[in-house]
Amino acid sequence: MPSRGPYAKGVAKREEILTKALEVIARQGYRKTSTRELASAVGLSEAGLLHYFGSKEKLFEEVLRARDEVDTARLGDDSDAVGKLDAIVRHNAGVPGLVQLYSTFSAEAGDPQHGAHEFFVERYQRLRHALTEAVQARQADGTVSTAAAPEKIATLLIALSDGLQIQSQFQLPDEPADLLDHLLELLRP
């Protein structure tokens, strides 16, 4: 039986806020998007917006969580985490504002006292695990070299994908457009 009443309305409003925040941040960037603007876009005051999340940091953590959920839904249940990572990196080239949010927020959350620290710890653990399994499968079928341990390759893939996405923010017009193609170069046998 579906939820009714104030709780259901609150859940729906949170979803509306996250959907709108993903759109606005993707279009304008993290630095150019204020909580006041997000609140206005969903018909709330700034205090009303933050009521749904508790803090600005929690709001942006939830935006990143929502981004991951949208990416997962868009890519389906394909078990090849390496292919998914490549597709996400390529997709993110078209939403630089979300890459900016992710890179800024992940750097800030490196501080164990930051509210989103655990989110990133758990995210990286999940991603490393999925990539390790995908690399093992590719090593078993001979499409990835066995010269390095799957766990190490998984860690390098994450570092490479994050780094390439950050670098793509600084790419000059006369640089090669295939910067993001470097991700899968690591896996060539």
Task: Give a structural overview.
The structure is a single chain. This protein has 8 helices and no strands. With 189 residues, the chain is mainly alpha-helical. The protein has a domain at 56-187: Tetracycline Repressor, domain 2, CATH 1.10.357. The N and C termini lie far apart (52 Å). The model has no long low-confidence stretch (mean pLDDT 87).
Task: Fill in the keyword field for this structure.
single chain, 189 residues, mainly alpha, Tetracycline Repressor, domain 2, 8 helices, 66% helix
- Count of helical segments? 8
Largest pleated sheet: none
- CATH topology-level name of the domain at 56-187: Tetracycline Repressor, domain 2
Shape call? elongated
CATH architectural type of the domain at 56-187:
Orthogonal Bundle
Write the layout of secondary structure elements.
Elements: H1 5-28, H2 35-41, H3 46-51, H4 56-75, H5 81-92, H6 96-108, H7 117-140, H8 150-168
Helix pairs in contact: 1-4, 1-6, 4-6, 5-8, 7-8
Quick synopsis:
This protein is mostly helical and 189 residues long.
